[in-house]
Structure formats: structure tokens, C-alpha cells
Amino acid sequence: MSTPLPLVASDLDRTLIYSAAALALTMPDHRAPRLLCVEVHEHKPLSYVTEHAAHLLTELKSAAVFVPTTTRTRKQYQRIQLPGPPSQFAICANGGHLLVDGVSDPDWARAVSARIAAECASLAEVRAHLRATADASWLRKERVAEDLFAYLVVERELLPDGWVKELAAWAEPRGWTVSLQGRKIYAVPKPLTKSAAVREVARRTGAELTLAAGDSLLDADLLLAADQGWRPGHGELAEAGWQAPGTEALAERGVLAGEEILRRFLARAAR
């Protein structure tokens, strides 16, 4: 009986793929890595990996069950064209949708929605609070993702000190988590987790080893649930000095951190 392949669950934005603003190319121009565009939005290139990262990811997909694990909606995720063969499984909406060959598993989606309804304040209540407390001087957009959670697009430099902490304190007893990532402030129900969906994929594939990576507070549960994890030297977790047994904090920042994470995944999966 063959040994099941390891499961690699990775966040995407600012973990594996990077917008132009997040690349952190601090080296001299002539030493900058060659980049591959992996996402186009409204006819414009949006997200990148290094060419070497593209080769590593293609190799990793032969050595492990690679599961993109993102807070993006299904529509936003489907814009991304990662190198290598398509993944059988993907996790969208922070665990709200488990895609199997590109199609959301309806039983999983129903189970998640039922748990949120039973344990958390309603999305309508949270959206009403966001609209009442956000200020037009720094709020650019208010959005709902998959009818599961809400997020704001803000001007970071105008965001008042302490506003996010006040929102988190309000949300906590109502069963919601708050996360600031770049220009977006997410309000997400606590039962909506990447780790629960990853555990379901591990159950279906029989994986005995789970590896993970992520950069934000919404990735903390994923890293804690993995046998081994990595976080880049930038992002919400790095800024908070977040540490946990089994999770290695990398020094690399920006797109080179994505390349290093893939290097670590591949080395561990190939053992």
C-alpha cells in the first residue's frame, strides 16, 4: 500500500503571490529576480511570483497535494493561474468553500453556514456596525464576500490609531474575528476557518503530514493545525511577533519570501 502524499496548504496573497506594491524588491534593479504574472484583473497584471518560485511550485505539485488556501472569494481565486497542473482541491472564502476540481462542495458549504448561524451574530449586524463606525474620510469600499463575511477597503495612512482594536473588541463577544491586511480590514465569523477545511481535505486524501504557510491573523489557525508551518518576515503575524511551536518565522520579505516558502515546502515534502 503506497504512502499518501503530504498535504501542503498555503495562503496566496502576500504569502505565495504578490502585487506590485508588495514585491519588496529592495535589491539593485539589475539584481532583481525575473517575475511571472499569475493574475490579470480588468486587463491589467495584478499578482506575481518569481520565475524560480514558478519552477518550485510545479515541482511541489508532483511531490504533494497542493491546496491553495485563501480568504478570496471563488471569483477572485479563479483569476489566478498558478504554474503547474491545476489543484484538485482549493479552499476559498477563508474555509467557507471547499472546491473539488473547481466546483464548491455543497455539503461543506451548508455545514459551514449552519455553524455560523448557530454560533455568531449575523452578518447584517456586523455590517451595520461597520457602516456606523467607519468614516468616509478613510473608507473607500465596504464589501461582502460570498454572503459569509465583510471587509472594508481603507486608506491606511488615514485610519485612526486604535480603530481596528476597538472593532476587534466589539466583534469578539459576538463570535467574530478582525484582521487588518494591507488596505483591507476583514470581519470574519470565528467558525469560518482555513484549518477546518484543510482537515477535511486531509481526511479525504489520507494525508499523514500537513504543511502550511501564511502571513495574516486569519492564517494563525492554519499554521497551528499543521505539522509544520512557515510565515514570511512581513505581514500581520510578523508585525505582531506571532510565534508558535512548529511554525518557523522566515527573515525573507516580499516576493522572495514566497520563493523561500516554496523551497521549504518542497524540501520537507520530499523527505
What would you say about this model in short?
With 271 residues, the protein is α/β, with parallel strands linked by helices. The protein has helices at residues 51-63, 74-77, 106-119, 123-133, 163-171, 194-205, 220-225, 236-239, 255-269; strands at 7-10, 18-19, 35-41, 44-50, 65-68, 89-92, 97-100, 103-104, 139-145, 149-154, 176-181, 184-189, 210-213, 228-231, 247-249.
How does this structure look, described?
Helix content is 32%, strand content 26%. The protein has nine helices and 15 strands. The strands form four sheets. The chain has a five-stranded parallel β-sheet with strand order 5-1-13-14-15, sandwiched between helices. Strands 9-10-12-11 form a four-stranded antiparallel β-sheet, covered by helices on one side. The radius of gyration is 18 Å and the shape is globular. The two termini are 18 Å apart.
The major β-sheet equals:
5 strands, parallel
Span between N and C termini? Answer: 18 Å
Helix count, per DSSP?
Answer: 9
Low-confidence stretches at least 5 residues in length (pLDDT < 50)?
none
> What is the share of helical residues?
25-40%
- The shape, in one word, is globular
Q: What class do helices, strands and sheet pairing give?
A: alpha/beta
Beta percentage is 25-35%
Order of SSEs:
EEEEHEHEEEHHEEHEEHEHEHEH
Count the strands? 15
State mean pLDDT (0 to 100 scale): 97
**Structural Rg:** 18 Å
Strand order of the largest sheet: 5-1-13-14-15
